[in-house]
Specification:
The chain is mainly α. The chain has a single domain, classed as Amino acid/polyamine transporter I (Up-down Bundle), CATH 1.20.1740. It is globular.
Length: 444
């Protein structure tokens, strides 16, 4: 395959740098902001959901790592879908991922604008969104090395902020600071753990998975590894680090702040710091939310551009999108399409009624789960597995399936599920038409 032999102009990276890159991609608004919705729906059981989502994510990451070790490919999950099931699967999964990520970009950029308006309320939202989009495109324009360096620096800032929050939370939750008392005791936390009921927990499951969104970008970057067989170690270290920090930070929020003081519309960390009367640290954390959002945007811009290039290399998008100019990491034509898609995404986010756009964004998040499921299915098809390997794959598919089906019972998520299925139907229809065309071409 053409793109599996691709050698990037950047130097190959050691496994620990891929771990840091993965933390940069994953530790984003899905965790810092999205967990507030999960807390609202599931209450204290969010801790159990995060643990289950981490197990599912770990098995998906292991599948992706083993596929990378087998054949490092720039197209990652879409290349493996193509190897496993044929050209139609590579075409369908590539375009499905590309279109969903482009839609999610608009909402991420708008969220960044809202965070920034806390400091500069008079600047219009679209100006912030456009500014962050331009910054993201500049990072991508300068290639993989600059993206990796940017993500690594931002990952360290986000990790430091989360550790700082955990220290503050521990001081407050364990009553070590004079005049501060935890909202509930550890005993009360365990007693009320399942107070939201099975349905509340099930509806929130998808948001726990969203906290790990970004691992597929790590898979795309894994082709740059010095030793591709170390992708598994890089993924394991990245996930172990994030889940320990996630559980510690959220547990401290729940011990510190009463549930009714954690609105779904605000980051639980901002709510906790505001509840604790710490305005200076609220501002610091607002900066962290901007950093988290921006690093997610940069990772998405990288992912959609790489997927577009590999689609073009396989003849599933206009060939000129894969034309390399000199030693550039990305063809300028592919960057141009990403830029145009981002503009459309911002315009949609700005002009479409908020509720409709939220449904589109939820749909984009669900399509991400379908992409993860395709990774596991490719893994089952391409790699000879022992009983434990097969078991891991089945558990991952069951957990993802449970999270997706949970949106059926949730009034706010259900329209997003239907939009995601519409996405699948439309791109499935186009894939079928292309499949017939390829068969006719082969016949001639």
């Amino acid at each position: 395959m053409q793109h599996s032999q691709h050698q990037s102009s950047s130097a190959k990276m050691p496994w620990w740098r891929l771990s840091l890159f993965g933390i940069g991609c994953t530790l984003g608004t899905g965790f810092f902001l999205g967990t507030s919705i999960a807390i609202q729906k599931s209450g204290y059981a969010i801790l159990l959901l995060l643990l289950l989502a981490a197990i599912g994510t770990y098995f998906v990451l292991q599948a992706l790592a083993k596929l990378t070790a087998m054949q490092p490919a720039k197209g990652s999950f879409r290349t493996y879908a193509q190897l496993a099931f044929g050209r139609w699967a590579g075409f369908g999964s590539g375009w499905l991922y590309w279109s969903s990520e482009m839609l999610i970009l608009g909402s991420s950029l708008m969220a960044l604008g809202l965070f920034s308006q806390l400091w500069f309320p008079s600047i219009p939202l679209w100006m912030f969104a456009a500014g962050y989009a331009v910054l993201g495109m500049i990072v991508i324009f300068f290639g993989i090395k600059v993206l990796e360096a940017t993500q690594s620096v931002l990952a360290i800032v986000k990790l430091a902020a989360l550790i700082m929050f955990i220290i503050i939370g521990a001081v407050v939750a364990f009553g070590l600071l004079q005049g501060t008392n935890p909202a509930i005791s550890y005993e009360q936390l365990t007693q009320r753990f399942f107070s939201s009921g099975v349905m509340g927990i099930w509806k929130a499951f998808i948001y726990a998975f969203y906290a790990f969104a970004g691992i597929e970008v790590m898979g795309l970057m894994a082709a740059e590894l010095e030793h591709p067989e170390e992708a598994s170690k890089a993924g394991g270290v990245m996930l172990a680090t994030t889940i320990v920090l996630y559980l510690a930070a959220i547990a401290l929020v729940l011990l510190w702040v009463p549930l009714d003081r954690l609105p779904a519309s605000e980051s639980p960390f901002i709510s906790a710091l505001r509840y604790g009367g710490m305005p200076i640290i609220v501002n610091i954390f607002n900066g962290v939310l901007i950093i988290a959002g921006f690093s997610s945007v940069a990772a998405s811009l990288y992912a959609v551009t790489i997927v577009l290039v590999t689609l073009a290399e396989d003849g599933d998008a206009p060939r000129r999108l894969s034309d390399q100019e000199g030693k550039r990491d990305f063809p300028l034509s592919a960057l141009g399409v990403t830029c145009a898609g981002t503009i459309v995404s911002i315009v949609l986010a700005y002009f479409i009624p908020k509720r409709i756009f939220e449904h589109i964004t939820t749909a984009g998040g669900l399509v991400l789960m379908y992409t993860w499921a395709s990774v596991v299915l490719s893994y089952l098809k391409l790699i000879t597995l022992n009983w434990w390997g097969k078991m891991q794959a089945i558990i991952a598919l069951l957990l993802i399936g449970l999270a997706v089906v949970g949106t059926v019972w949730d009034k706010s998520s259900r329209p997003g599920l239907f939009v995601s299925l519409l996405f699948v139907a439309v791109i499935g229809g186009v894939t079928l038409i292309m499949h017939q065309r390829w068969k006719r071409e082969e016949a001639h």
